[in-house]
Amino acid sequence: MTRRGWTLFAAMCVLWGVPYLMIKVAVAEVSVPVVVFARTAAGALLLLPFAVRSGGLAAARARWRPLLLFAALEILGPWALLSDAERTLSSSMTGLLIAAVPIAGVLIGRLAGDAERLGPARWAGLLVGLGGVALLAAPHLGGGSARAFGEVLLVVLGYATAPIVMARRLQDVPSVALSTVCLAVGALVYAVPAALTRPAAAPSGKALAALAGLGVLCTAVAFLVFFELLREAGTSRAMVFTYVNPAVAVAGGVLLLDEPLDAGILASFALILAGSVLATLRGRAAPAAQGTAYPGTDGQRTVSTTDSSSASQEWSTPRGHTT
User: Fold this and answer.
1) Domain span at 186
2) What is the DSSP string of 238-250?
3) Residue 116 belongs to a domain
4) Does residue 99 form part of some domain?
5) CB 128 within 8 A of CB 274
6) Max avg pLDDT among 5-14, 141-150, 282-291
7) How many domains does the chain have?
8) Distance between CA atoms of 302 and 313, rounded to whole angstroms?
């Protein structure tokens, strides 16, 4: 990979590793609808010029039904659920749980008719990764934590399912247009709830900075950097950064928010990471799998022939989820 590719890769490790930290800071002072609205509105406004230039808005409009479903699974539900869960859970723990998306993606792909065979290593990865999730969740399943864990697991399911909708119904919609329209839909949906729950007093500078960071850096800039990384390195190499994001989330929470880091968390992280890597190893595809979707890292799904995918397919396929 080129020096530019490594720079983009490093940027993505940070840009989609720190949202959990910023969400934790923001929800301490503003409501969940305000967090989601601020992020989606800022992201949509900043991406709109790029979407117009790409000429993909017409394609997005023509696919409005699956686009709304994709937006619900990728943004409308997950971003609100994540924000509400982080009122109870630490940002580092939330980031670790979201690392299970590749595992859920493999399971949901099988239920959705994915023809790719799962060998012993991938089945072992599923079991190891699920064991890591259980180890992380088990000590916290009482009271409000149980609800918060449930919310994050719903996010995992949404993030793992949304790419199936994208791969099967939205492949002809350019990535930047798809992202922009989904963010705009999110802003419209949360505008009224945000207005009704706006804080009586102005939030602190720290909370405002977190909201700005979520909308500008972790959404608009992150999408643009990610699309450039796809073009520079291709899907397979580009998506490796999703294995680094949980480590960034944990480091941010521990260093900046004084969140705990114990042996259980480290063991869970190792199990989830190992399980995700094993579960998403490229297996042998059945003959009927040509032209179908397969699960990749972090819920990513790309259109695949038996052994390779074209550069245009890599460019048109966005990340499986945003955080």
Assistant:
1) 3-316
2) HGGGGGTHHHHHH
3) yes
4) yes
5) yes
6) 5-14
7) 1
8) 7
